[in-house]
């Protein structure tokens, strides 16, 4: 699953792909670019090989921001992933598909306020305001 959130507005995007590789990441970027329309986004990402591949073609309206290695706590989406795991705790699923469907259901039920709540930490907001000033 690939996701993106906007900590200031609570906008959130999720799309499932079969693999976590460069090809699927490129498809996610292209899809996210379409979802954004004429808006721009700074996409904070880790340094996974799929994210740093020279084959990645960054859409004009998505600007990559690579976070330091081994620092997932700096990325707002990581906080959302943690929040999504809580309702899944101690549940058994009959299949991988059932788990996928439950994750999508939880994600679809998220409100903008919930996304803001888990992702709008002061240091994140300050960084966003600083980046927006340029």
Automatic annotation (TrEMBL):
Gene3D superfamilies: Ribonuclease H-like superfamily/Ribonuclease H. SUPFAM superfamilies: Ribonuclease H-like. Residues 1-100 form the Tc1-like transposase DDE domain. One of its GO terms (molecular function) is nucleic acid binding. This is Transposase.
